[in-house]
Amino acid sequence: MRILLTGNYLPDAQHSMLRFCDMLATELRKTGHKVQSVHPPVRLARGMNTHRGFGKWLAYIDKFILFVPLLKKLAGQADVVHICDHAYSLYTKFLIGVPRVVTCHDLLAVRCARREYPNQKVSWTGQKYQCMILQGLERASLVACDSAATRNDLLRLTKVAPERTAVLHVGYNFPFRLVSDDERRQRFERLGIGFDDRFMIHVGADVWYKNVRGLLGIFRRLLSFPETRDLRLVMVANNRTPEFHALKDEFALEERVMVFSNISGEDLRALYSGACALLFPSLCEGFGWPIIEAQACGCPVFASDRPPMTEIGDKGAVYFNPENYDQAANTIREHLSYASEMRKLGLLNAKRFSTQNMVSAYMRLYSNAIALETGTLPYN
Question: Is residue 176 part of a domain?
Answer without folding.
Answer: no
